Amino acid sequence: MSRFGKLFSINSKPIMAKSKYVSIEDIKSTSYMKKTVGSGLSMKPDTYYVVASVELGNTTTKCILTATNLRTSQTYLLDKTVKMTRDIRSPKNGEKVFGETVWEVELTKESVSEMVRDTIHESLKRAHVNIEKDLDFVVRSTGVTAGFASLKEVGDLIIALANGCLEAGIPPRKMAPAMSRDNFPKRLQDYTMIDKIIFDGAVASVLPPTGKAVVANEMEGELVTAGIKIGAKWTKVDFRNPCVSMDFGTTLAGRITNNDEPYARTIGNFCGLAGGISDSIIRGTEMVDKRGGAALDLYKRGIIKGADWKVAKKFAKEAHEYVDIRKVPEGRDRFGTVPVDPKAAYAAGTTLIGCDVGKNGDAIPELTKLGHDIYESEGIHTLFATLDHVSALVVKRLVEEAFDEGVIEDGSMLGVTGRAGITGKKPELILEYVQKYFKNTIFVSDALAMGAAVMARCMNSMGTPNVPIGGRQGGACILGQRRKLQNQK
């Protein structure tokens, strides 16, 4: 960005991409008279692709139903059902505990499957979505790997997620890519290019790091990057490569991509703690559960009204004395409690940038004590204002570290999602810190679920060449380049 561009961008408002809701009845009765780009009116009704994103997180478990208009590439919400992961039932006699959340909630295959099943059922019922007639695909993801000790435990969790979907009545064919055009329902057959292009692992034109997985919640980073790209379709921002994505759930996820075509490389990965920092501070109020309590439990509109922002900023800087943000050292196997493989990352040309509290969260009690002091002296409003400043400073330090490491390309855009990144006054504070670094910064709600919708389409070769998600900012669809590349193999 030029010097004058920076000057005129000061105090600009954050670009917010908020999810829009639609009902299943609405998408079944779409008008036949639709304008198409450059060709006037069309007598063909819009077709929607309905996807369920099933997410098991450290703090929340969700089933989010989305419907993507395959003409415009805009993704709507049908339903968002959210449960607290701490409410997963306790292990029964004879059940094997295979892992726990970052807040030490014990997990068994049976208890996870039941939670997933019930969350899916509730979501489908609320949205009046029929599994056979309306639902096209299901994508499963988890951020709970932070509390795990081995890859086997991660595998057990993935099996438990799949079992929960099966128990909910989801057929296996709706959880795996189609093999041919004939495997799609007739209404979707004209929208797949499966006979022209195959799914080769790139989601929204970004390849994951090659070789071994470099961070346990890598899939989350993949999904939120794609989700921010599709969420940007609700704005005037062309959020394509090169880009930087950050997901502020309990744990931190996200990617830095370069400008290669047809596929960008993942040249940076974020990992560690994010919303868990705020949750640790809020537990000092003693108004939430000491293990699974979250800032989400107390957050409500207007909670920051009347806050002393000057005092809040001072406390946030004090909190950051315990926050360690840096390139992950090669000798670590965890950073911010999240399993990592820095050696594999650096061999693949991917820089890991982590956020920790002490070492693997061992300074979390200090943040809880600080939260108690803030609440006792300043009250709940200034405490929540402190959390906004804490998250903004995390983004600032992550961005500065990435620039210091030289992994953010010129012209990159920043996208932020997750409860600890887009609520309250966080977007305004974040923008103050980062607007000088980026061409644009966008804040997207429900990016992980939006990304699940994109992944489902990529796996089934259902792109929209007239409204591309992949490729470079301002560039054309990369379908031709992909076909040429695949024909060479």
Note down, in words, how this protein is organized.
The protein has a five-stranded mixed beta sheet with strand order 1-20-19-11-12, with helices on both faces. Strands 10, 13, 14, 15 and 18 form a five-stranded mixed beta sheet that branches. It is an alpha/beta fold and 489 residues long. Helix 6 (218-231) packs across helix 15 and helix 11 (364-378) crosses helix 12. It has helices at 3-9, 24-28, 109-127, 151-167, 186-189, 218-231, 275-282, 295-298, 309-319, 342-347, 364-378, 380-404, 419-422, 426-434, 447-459, 479-488, and strands spanning 15-17, 34-35, 41-42, 48-56, 60-69, 75-84, 97-100, 106-108, 137-142, 206-207, 243-248, 252-253, 255-257, 264-272, 323-327, 334-335, 338-339, 351-357, 413-417, 441-444.
